Amino acid sequence: MLKQRLQQKLLQKLSPQQIQVIKLLEIPTMLLEQRIKKELEENPILEEGENYESDTEQENSATEDDVDKNDDEFTLEDYLNDEDTPSYKLSTNNTSKDDKHEDIPFSVGATFHEHLENQLGMLTLSEREHQLALYLVGNIDEDGYLRRKLTAITDDVAFALGVETNEDELERILYIIQELEPAGVGARDLQECLLLQLKAKEKTSATAKTAYEILKYHFDEFTRKHYDKIASKLNLNDDDLRDAINEIIKLNPKPGGGFNDPYNQSAQHIIPDFIMEYVDGDFQLSLNSRNVPDLKISREYSEMLESYSNNKDSASQQEKDAMTFVRQKIESAKWFIDALKQRQNTLLGTMESIIEYQKEFFRDGDETKLRPMILKDIADKTGLDISTISRVANSKYIQTHFGIYSLKSFFSEGMQTDSGEEVSTKEIRKILQECVDNEHKRKPLTDEQLMEILQEKGYPIARRTVAKYREQLGIPVARLRKELK
Q1: What are the residue boundaries of the structural domains of the chain, listed by start?
Q2: How many CB atoms lie within 10 A of CB 462?
Q3: Which residues contact 124 (CB under 8 A, 6 or more apart)?
Q4: Exposure of 237 by Cβ count < 10 A (0-12 exposed, 13-18 middle, 19+ buried)?
Q5: Which is it for strands 403-406 and 282-287: parallel, antiparallel or unpaired?
Q6: Which fold has domain 413-485?
Q7: Can you list the residues of the chain whose pLDDT is less than 50?
Q8: I need a labelling partner for 468 at 20 to 30 A (CA). Which of 65, 187, 334, 390 fits?
């Protein structure tokens, strides 16, 4: 049975402006410029440039005598009156003292696959062989490996090229491709890739021949660094084994990745969001906004609204619709400019609090001086929500006089030493890294030994915690750190 009833609910909803501020907080400086350009394209009310002030606008602005404020239509005062609207809502200044604009050059060259195809063109191949070779090259990934099974490729060739082939013929064509440069291309696994690179050397060098035998017949022992077993099976002394291992280490496990492909650049350039200078004992912080334009409300559309407010009685329906559109766009533009201003204030306020909290570290960059700090510490200091601090710290970097750091790197948990002093876990990880760097590479320190060293230094830490910190530092287990020194 259906019933009608009234119910009151207390809900929290974010305004469009709040949502916009949240989204802008999350993006770093590198993406902010793109976001502003997108807004400029979508909103004709927004323009690049500094805010303007005009006596003519103030003289011609609508007054209460000209317009009935109880009318459903809007007036110029609702949006453009400087007395009602703070100046920061009409413009934002994102410039800094470092306003240099740099153009990044783009180099053009052959891609990795084009490089292989060009080499195929110089070989003496039949039309069928060339066609199959091109298809195989197209299945080689960016690292230079052919990771698909030849049996699967035979079916694809039949459907795509209408050519009947078999696995033996494709393997023969693959051997031709494996003779191309860079060495190791067309391999189906790491072992084959390294063997291809050693194939030419093993006939001319005794060391390369030994390295070839190690990879060919003792690859599993090599990957597990069971060097004693390898030396025993191949009757090698320490010097010969060391030379062979060094020969293998020089090989390229990703022959395609080393190719200079301008269209496949994996390296990411870090653009700092903050710039901090330490001058005469004082910290000077600024936002890095060198390529972020200033924004303002378009004068043309402002005058259009002014003209309409003075002649609204005689306006047609089409003009009213147009002005409604302009009104919405002006409101959207003000929201965006205000969101940028709030973003700037939030970023600076949060970073200033981090610097104040970690002032000992920011003086000289000594990581042992980093205090334990979590998001809540900065949230309490700034009066902002923890989620806001998290958004500010995400994907943001600061340039200091001793290097560029991720904001996330300043946050860490703390632990108490035997003396009762609270230290950051970063300090423990730094000591752990130093222990591994200075260990005897032939007999690397186990997690148990690292735990004992840290405990001797006054850090009550468990072995599983040592393993966790070691993995965070990207340090492999002791067996895989073993080297022949």
Answers
A1: 16-52+72-100+270-411, 112-249, 413-485
A2: 12
A3: none
A4: exposed
A5: unpaired
A6: Arc Repressor Mutant, subunit A (1.10.10)
A7: 52-92, 97, 99-108, 261-267
A8: 390
